[in-house]
Amino acid sequence: MTQLDDSPVLASGAVPKHVQLRTILLERVETDLAPHAAIPPERKLMTKYGVSRSTVREAIRQLVDEGVLYRIQGKGTFVTGERVQSDLHLASFTEDMRRRGLVPATVVMGSTLMEAPLEVRAALGLKAGAQVQQVERLRLAGGIPMAFERGYYPAGLLPDLNSQDLTRSLYATFATEYGLRIDHAEQTAWAETANAELAEPLGIEVGVPLLVFLRTSSAGSTPVEHVTSWYRGDRYQIHMTLNLNHDL
């Protein structure tokens, strides 16, 4: 244990109290706490180290920003585990997580038959007035929220999609129930911060970094899916292998 831990009540001095507390919490994470273990609640830290709530919150905020800790609204603050790494390849979320030894799960947040928005019509090659099934799902890995996704699926191509089990891999459903095997996709990725709509289901705070993927998937020449997925930046990373193209 550090000298700071031997003297629990933190003293004022050249090193601000929130910096001292951050050091103590970081050492506990590195030596005592397992991934996804909860750290002590704010009030307990205030009492043990003789500091204010604002000092505790600043120390924790820094560790959250650094990716050492993460918050779940209404539950507390926890030690970050290793990020799930994904190679860029064409696979469903279910397949991707299973390949990494994690148990995938899906919570259907909503499913609505609607007229396709202009952007969706363009991506899926639909005519004006065409209907799509909008499906919103929360994706979990090992019981922890990983991603929120909003997808659009042509109703004419996938009739009665809403009657299917939307908690399973949709790619598997397309293949077994509709004879459509997803074999290629166009995908764009970027970063943004979580708004209130995304923060709540993902169990994070507003402003936390997200990785966003916009994908249009097809079976042969037929577009089947236009989906946006928001992944927690503290739980997910991607890996790319880049080779020099000597023909350039």
From TrEMBL:
Q: Which organism is it from?
A: Cryobacterium arcticum
Q: Which InterPro entries match?
A: Bact_HTH_transcr_reg, Chorismate_lyase_/UTRA_dom_sf, Tscrpt_reg_HTH_GntR, UTRA, WH-like_DNA-bd_sf, WH_DNA-bd_sf
Example GO biological process term?
A: negative regulation of DNA-templated transcription
Q: Which SUPFAM superfamilies match?
A: Chorismate lyase-like (SSF64288), Winged helix' DNA-binding domain (SSF46785)
PROSITE patterns referenced in this protein's UniProt entry, alphabetically: HTH_GNTR
**UniProt keywords, alphabetically:** DNA-binding, Transcription, Transcription regulation
The residue ranges of the HTH gntR-type domain are 15-82
Protein's recorded name:
GntR family transcriptional regulator
Spell out the molecular function terms from Gene Ontology: DNA binding; DNA-binding transcription factor activity
Short name of one Pfam family: GntR
